Amino acid sequence: MAETIKLAHGFGGRLTQELLDELIVPALAGGGGHAPTLDAAVLPDLQPPVVVSTDAFTVTPRFFPGGDIGKLAVCGTVNDVAMMGARPRYFALSLIIEEGLPLEELRRIVASLGETARAAGVAIVTGDTKVVEAGAADGIFIVTTGFGTREFTVGPERIQPGDLILISGTIADHGAAILNARERLGFAGSLASDCAPLWELASATARAAGDRLHALRDPTRGGLAATLNEFARDTGLTFTISERALPLSPETAAFLEALGLDPLPMANEGKCLLLVSPAGAEAALSAARRDPFGKDAAVIGRVESGSGRGRVVLETAIGTRRVVEMPLEAGLPRIC
Amino acid sequence: MAETIKLAHGFGGRLTQELLDELIVPALAGGGGHAPTLDAAVLPDLQPPVVVSTDAFTVTPRFFPGGDIGKLAVCGTVNDVAMMGARPRYFALSLIIEEGLPLEELRRIVASLGETARAAGVAIVTGDTKVVEAGAADGIFIVTTGFGTREFTVGPERIQPGDLILISGTIADHGAAILNARERLGFAGSLASDCAPLWELASATARAAGDRLHALRDPTRGGLAATLNEFARDTGLTFTISERALPLSPETAAFLEALGLDPLPMANEGKCLLLVSPAGAEAALSAARRDPFGKDAAVIGRVESGSGRGRVVLETAIGTRRVVEMPLEAGLPRIC
After folding, report:
1. Residue A122 gets which letter from DSSP?
2. Percentage of residues in chain B with pLDDT exceeding 70?
3. How far is the C-alpha of A28 from the C-alpha of B120, rounded, in Å?
4. Which end of chain A has fewer CB atoms surrounding its CB within 10 Å, N or C?
5. Nearest CB to A131: which of B5, B99, B133?
6. What is the pLDDT of residue B190?
7. pLDDT over 90 at A45, yes or no
């Protein structure tokens, strides 16, 4: 392992996994007999069952086409809770603010935060505000912790060979929009983050597909490449996706092509992967497409038993097959 | 209001209150019909009742006599939950790490975090790790969100005229230790933070005093001055404390005297105020003194009906009385 923290430790790929598995998780395990889980956890012993997720938001720039750090801080955590089958209900909010931040900017950020929370039906019940000296943070960091009550059960342990892989819409939009805004690459037009709360879409597909909906996950940091590799690692199955089937907006496709970037490791902030048995796929797809954030939902692949060593395979547009690796240093820092 | 964020917005005193009341809370209110509360909140509709608190830890230096940022990040949130009468049980953990932080330092911090959590009986159930570029944060910021199940009911609404004011031990130790370590003032010796988890002490005093224990609060940022002023504002009562009765360690007393600093607005991280009816005070005091973190517990004052406009009064060692104001720009940034 490297001797200092590198930016790639935060990209959501292999170095992040290594940092968590080798250094952080072992040090934290054991309290009350529990080991920490990624993304979200179910709190034992409560009725109804409570799902908890926490996320820090450090995105730069703080305002970008399609959203801002406040909206993102709500959507990101709402979605982590929703992907566990839980209705997001309560939020705890922590603000770390740099001395010198214009109050007008703070006002816009908290207004967006409040508005997005109200729209998502989430109550912000408690919070904390810290101020650090100029130079000790970058404007503002926001940490949200969300609590939801579980309404249906999904998880990678339910994924089976034969399941279809669905995505709720176009991919790579958030990563592309942030990269464009950050580097002032001039691809203005309608390149915009997909940042959106997904509980309604998730619950509608679950109602439509019932227990044929096996797993949900939002492919944020590390994009589809990271999320599918996590599924592959957890299940030992092969996840095959078709390049032709991947929904891409014309703007994002043009932007990525111009820069020679792969959409698979690019972050999404308003999309989810749905793993559904074939008998439930049509119902799930129709339900997703009726949601305002799911109109471009598509079947993009299938799960196969493979060799027993989990992997992700892309069938390219020209008919070849290549393994999609867990991203190592892909993407950008501070996309969320 | 000022037009940019100032350090004093984070001191826990009047400017913090103004920022929260005028800018942050109004923007966030309304989701699910709830307005955010400070410090901690009870989540409705769950059985048993769940108390939640979130806090960001930005302390500098990250290692100091008596603790480090990892230990503090556990104790601070354990205590916010405990002060609501809830047994701390689960934690969500967010790490914001600056590129270049030595892994050895991160290892020490998470080891301390895990050890303190296990000692406090708390399970870290989920988390998030973000990395920001060198210069975009200061080493590491830690946000902990704690969940506890409520075992007894306390709150400022239960405080009555005649109640005695108890403190669980010596005051101002954390603020003094951080100031000394930060400024390299050379008062080495045994000047040390009091950083400690207080659930056992809180529950022992509650068992001993029963419903005669009316309120608990840990006087962290802004110290006794801020906490007592919050009680005064919430109740409209007068909180009178005696300077002679305030427990001070010889080291902290010498340090503060040399610098001409008032102990009242200095932070504590392992102490609580207990508001107890006279009939319960002896039982609460004995119970607190039996706890390893309560051996210097003392009665330091009483609650009076006063003029109906809440205020805090200090009876000085020379027999005069002065009003203790809510701290405005007292203290230091980044003591927690």
Report:
1. -
2. 95
3. 13
4. N
5. B5
6. 80
7. no
Find the mean pLDDT for residues B55-65.
96
**B125 contacts A41? CB cut-off 8 A:** yes
Non-local CB neighbours of A54 within 8 Å, separated by 6+ positions: A77, A143, A144, A145, A146, B92, B93, B94, B126, B127, B128, B143, B145
For residue A223, the model assigns a pLDDT of 95
**Under an 8 A CB cutoff, do A93 and B1 touch?**
no
Instruction: Report CA-CA distances (Å) from B10 to B138, B183, B231, B257.
Output: 16, 19, 19, 25
Residue B274, SS3? Answer: strand
Instruction: State the pLDDT confidence band at B39, using cuts at 50, 70 and 90.
Output: confident
For residues A293 and A169, the answer to whether their CB atoms sit within 8 Å is yes
Selected residue of A11, A15, A46 to mutate for chain B interface (largest B Cβ count, 10 A): A46
CA nearest to A95 within chain B: B56
CB contact under 8 A, B4 and A46: no
What mean pLDDT do residues A122-146 have? 95
Select the residue of A31, A106, A130 nearest B23 (Cβ to Cβ): A106
C-alpha distance from B90 to closest chain A C-alpha (Å): 8
Cα-Cα-Cα-Cα dihedral sign, residues B25, B30, B31, B35: positive
In this predicted structure, the answer to whether residue A330 has a pLDDT above a threshold of 70 is no
Residues in CB range of A286: below 8 A, 6 or more apart = A208
- Dihedral angle sign, alpha carbons of residues A55, A61, A62, A65: negative
Nearest to B187 by CA among B172, B202, B177: B177
Q: Does B213 have pLDDT greater than 70?
A: yes
Chain A residues close to B106, C-beta within 8 Å: 5, 23-24
Nearest to A102 among B3, B137, B147 (CB): B3
pLDDT band at B330 (very low <50, low <70, confident <90, very high): low
* Residue in A21, A54, A221 to test binding to B, most B beta-carbons within 10 Å: A54
| Dist CA A308 CA A304 (whole Å) | 10
User: Is A4–B103 a contact, with Cβ atoms under 8 angstroms apart?
Assistant: yes
User: Quick check: helix, strand or coil at residue B248?
Assistant: coil
* Longest distance between any two alpha carbons in chain A, whole Å: 57
Cβ neighbours of residue B318 under 8 Å, at least 6 residues apart? none
Q: Alpha-carbon distance B10 to B5, whole Å?
A: 9
Q: Each residue of B262-308: pLDDT tens digit?
A: 999 999 999 999 999 999 999 999 999 999 999 999 999 999 998 88
Q: At residue A29, does pLDDT exceed 90?
A: no
| pTM across the whole model | 0.94
A3: nearest CA partner in chain B? B103
Q: How far apart are CA A311 and CA A324, in angstroms?
A: 8
CA angle B78, B218, B73 (to 5 degrees): 35
Q: What are phi and psi of A269, to 5 degrees?
A: -130, 10
Comparing CB atoms, the residue among A5, A30, A58 nearest residue B103 is: A5
CA dihedral A146, A147, A152, A156 (to 10 degrees): 50
pLDDT above 80 for A291: yes
